[in-house]
Automatic annotation (TrEMBL), chains A, B:
Name of the protein described by the UniProt record: TetR/AcrR family transcriptional regulator
Organism name: Nocardioides pocheonensis
Gene3D superfamilies in the record: Homeodomain-like, Tetracycline Repressor, domain 2
DNA-binding region, residues: 35-54
The UniProt record lists the keyword DNA-binding: yes
Keyword entries, A-Z: DNA-binding
Signal peptide start and end residues: none
Domain HTH tetR-type: residue ranges: 12-72
Keyword presence, Ribosomal protein: no
Length: 195, 195
């Protein structure tokens, strides 16, 4: 048995061409406005090859983000335990990734892209739909389509203050303090009374 | 008695030159790194003239932001009534300004500048210090230097979702719904237990 070290199939050039095309099209057309067929055409390959290498359009989108971790895998364990205490679990997973110096740099690049006016569609139609929205569904909370954007409003503000703008004391707070401050907010947004 | 229509003294050219110099220096050096003396030198005028036209360095900074309203005046009434219910008053004032179509455009321009990596120092050393920080002090809350950046993390996230990225349902919620969702959060950040 050969050890593949997790390498995926396909010529590196073809994979790179597909990812390049996907990034360009997702950035200009958003998630909804971009089809796998269009990505394939731009990369000069058959759509079946895109599916073969990358799976679904959701998977292709996450691959195009070039995140250091697949947020859907990380968040699956959070969602599996149900809504009670989900905010604290969500925050602890979030902080373990964002506070890791090696993971932080690519995440900052992505955050800057998503928060840039040109990244608006990518965040709105892509990231929120593919990554954030499904958390609410997996948790089985009421009105996930109303509550998850509210959750996102606090998480994005935290990312801004702690990592992008580095405003003290938020930037240097220990993880436990961040959890103490933000978990009750996010738990209420997930499951509490928003009147 | 002549009606001045609120016009301020000074040659328009001199005032414009001072504001130009102030914007350039605040943007590159941040609030703390910019002196009235340096602004005067760059504008080719005497520092006394800067003080004469614009008052203190704080006043000059707010003038350089070219906001449609002076946030310090708007927020003074919120602060005067004390910490009880301050979050709801703060949010209602905030929404009355941001939801006004005529005021929203210049505010969006400012928000984009402050959230851009190049605006980092301006937001951190300027806006938070001159505009946000003093609200906490005026309200007489405990640990304003810890609590106000936390408040800012939720308000910035709300600005992002409602106005900059226009993510539904946050973008189109009536003001009362925004207050119902966010006032309890901000009130806790101002006066509640953050353990």
């Amino acid at each position: 048995m050969t050890v593949s070290r997790g390498r995926r199939p396909g010529s590196p050039d073809t994979r790179a061409a597909i990812l390049d095309a996907a990034r360009t099209l997702f950035a200009s057309g958003g998630f909804s406005g971009t089809s796998v067929r269009a990505v394939a055409a731009k990369a000069g390959v058959d759509p079946a090859l895109v599916h073969h290498y990358f799976g679904t359009k959701d998977d292709l989108f996450v691959a195009a983000l070039a995140l250091p971790v697949d947020p859907r895998e990380v968040l699956a364990s959070v969602a599996a335990e149900g809504p009670d205490g989900a905010a604290e679990r969500l925050l602890r997973v979030f902080l373990s990734v964002w506070d890791d110096p090696e993971l932080q740099l690519p995440l900052l690049g992505l955050a800057r892209t998503l928060l840039d006016p040109s990244g608006k569609q990518l965040l709105r139609d892509g990231f929120l739909k593919v990554v954030i929205g499904p958390i609410g569904v997996a948790l089985g909370i009421d009105e996930p389509e109303r509550r998850m954007p509210v959750v996102a409003s606090q998480v994005l503000g935290l990312i801004l203050m702690r990592y992008l703008l580095e405003v003290e004391p938020v930037a240097s707070m220990p993880a436990d303090e961040v959890v103490g401050i933000y978990a009750p907010t996010i738990q209420r947004y997930l499951t509490g009374d928003l009147s």
